[in-house]
Amino acid sequence: QLHSDQDKGDGSLKYILSGDGAGDLFIINENTGDIQATRRLDREEKPVYILRAQAINRRTGRPVEPESEFIIKIHDINDNEPMFTKDIYNASIPEMSDVGTFVVQVTATDADDPTYGNSAKVVYSILQGQPYFSVESETGIVKTALLNMDRENREQYQVVIQAKDMGGQMGGLSGTTTVNITLTDVNDNPPRFPQSTYQFRAPESMPLDSPVGRIKANDADVDENAEIEYSITEGDGYDMFGITTDKDTQEGIITVKKALDFENKNLYILKVEAANTHVDPRFLYLGPFKDSATVRIQVEDVDEPPMFSRPAYIMEVKEDVPMNSIIGTVTAQDPDAAKNPVKYSVDRHTDMDRVFNINSGNGSIFTSKPLDRETLLWHNITVIAAETNNPKQSSRVPVFIKVLDVNDNAPEFPMFYETFVCENAKAEQLIQTLSAVDKDDSYSGHQFSFSLAPEAASSSNFTLQDNRDNTAGIFTRKIRYNRHEMTTYFLPVVISDNDYPIQSSTETVTIRVCACDHRGKMLSCNAEALIHPTGLSTGALIAILLCIIILLVTVVLFAALRRQRKKEPLIISKEDIRDNIVSYNDEGGGEEDTQAFDIGTLRNPEAIDDNKLRRDIVPETLFMPRRTATARDNTDVRDFINQRLKENDTDPTAPPYDSLATYAYEGNGSVAESLSSLESVTTDGDQDYDYLSDWGPRFKKLADMYGAMDSDKDS
């Protein structure tokens, strides 16, 4: 309660309050000065409030005393239970840990005032998890409480820890949390085979590295602590079999290392050991971390193919050996107890030329064709051995045949030698150096000798000097040469080798005589191929190209003229029946059809009638055909053309532009007159064609034709 000395109880003063929570959390009676809290206070929310109070005159509003400040402190009570920092703790420790091994530390906090009483004093205890774990009451550290906890027996533990305030006394508040503890694995269990003996069967034809069987030793540990390595420690099959570890299943896989043979040995006994790869020295006292078992492998008999005495054969033969000569023998036999006979043959896919053959009974290989080392040095063939009773049982072996060299090839030039000599050459001048090659093989190196052929040694214009290093030089013998007298010299050279038997050959060197400058550089030769490359010059190519262009232009112009000639005239009129051109527009029925047109008009133009129209169709023209004067028998060509030209110029029916007018004038002067057979049909009398024979050989064919017709009529 606030009270002012100036307060006389007459209600003239008014108390007001300001500061933390004034008007909200704290209110004051303005008449009496009593201060009250409107709701329950929480120290954990705000432990101290600072307020200011003042008494003022109600009437004037002026303070009657200076403002006073006072502090309200909230006294703590135990109204908050301890709270853990985590709802659930997770921890892990290795199995077989010692007692007191640290597991995890839990922490709980109390919101109450730690300086006032025991409200915030927290004590830890374990509610669940004994006797395996314990907790320190003041620090909250969880430790192991039991020795040799085994993960293989139990892996997960759930521990409940309680935190209680008031120092753990009666009436204190508490909170709990859960700690999940996992035991991690250590290698405390050795591998163990579930049985002491294993038995497997393997056919003797089993390929190498094939699995025979699987065995497995059990290990209660996990991950790397359960990894096992298998090995064969002893037994009569120590070198015949091997064992590997399957990393996924930790099984031991027994495989075949060497070929099995039932006839030699049909039972193998092995001792297999399984050991951990990661051993923990702390647990060696539990015993050796390995185990062993016995494996018995029974080999089963199968029908095997013949087996060669060697995996491959290498033979040598000289290239000059006669055909059918034996060069070697292969041997194979049936490994089975029956010892079936074997038949030999050559795989012809490896000897397509059939150079070799084999004796099917004893395996002797002999040649069937001549050999040539220079053509093929090695022959790689395959020999097949099959059982006679069961040909399906067969085996193969490679045979490598090397052809040995004999001196059967003469040395020769490595290239065609063609050189030149200058007309102004001096005597004893080197013009060409020669070398040689030999297809034969020489173990000590080739040694060639060069010499001129006997027929050229004395009469040659050149000399040959052997350099004794497998080369030779050609030198001039005289001072000058004349290409007009001799353009080309052919110099025969004999080349011999130093092997046995000695082989020699005669090669030819071509020497051309050429004109040279004072430095010896060739200027011209009769053989232009020596100095000019083969091909056409630039001028020749340009000339050929121009010819092609001119030819193309000519073809284009010719095609254009042909197209222009084929163009139709400007006027095509069906009604234009001037002169002797008549358009009928029908095919007709041939010579026997006389209804479509008057054949007599064509035979004799003078027989045209003014009013005579076509008899088979209705006339199409509006104008009557104009009368054209017939030409007199002796009318001159010039007069006839002038007359027709005048008629066309004065014709009112002619078109107002240029048109084509046909005059159809045969002219006079022919002794034989008209040769047309059209006019002759109009005469009733028979014609006499004997005069055709008097006209010469050009009319002989025509005379024979009409003479034959007369003879037919007479007969």
TrEMBL record:
Entry membrane topology: Single-pass type I membrane protein
Record keywords: Calcium, Cell adhesion, Cell membrane, Cleavage on pair of basic residues, Glycoprotein, Membrane, Metal-binding, Repeat, Signal, Transmembrane, Transmembrane helix
Entry superkingdom: Eukaryota
Cellular-component GO terms for this entry: adherens junction; catenin complex
Location in or out of the cell: Cell membrane
PROSITE patterns on file: CADHERIN_1, CADHERIN_2
Primary residence: membrane
A Pfam family reported for this protein in Swiss-Prot or TrEMBL: Cadherin
Keyword Metal-binding: yes
The keyword Repeat is assigned to this record: yes
Membrane spanning residue stretches: 540-561
Domain Cadherin: 4-84, 85-193, 194-308, 309-413, 413-523
A biological process from GO: cell morphogenesis
Function: Cadherins are calcium-dependent cell adhesion proteins. They preferentially interact with themselves in a homophilic manner in connecting cells; cadherins may thus contribute to the sorting of heterogeneous cell types.
Protein name (database record): Cadherin-6
Gene field: Cdh6
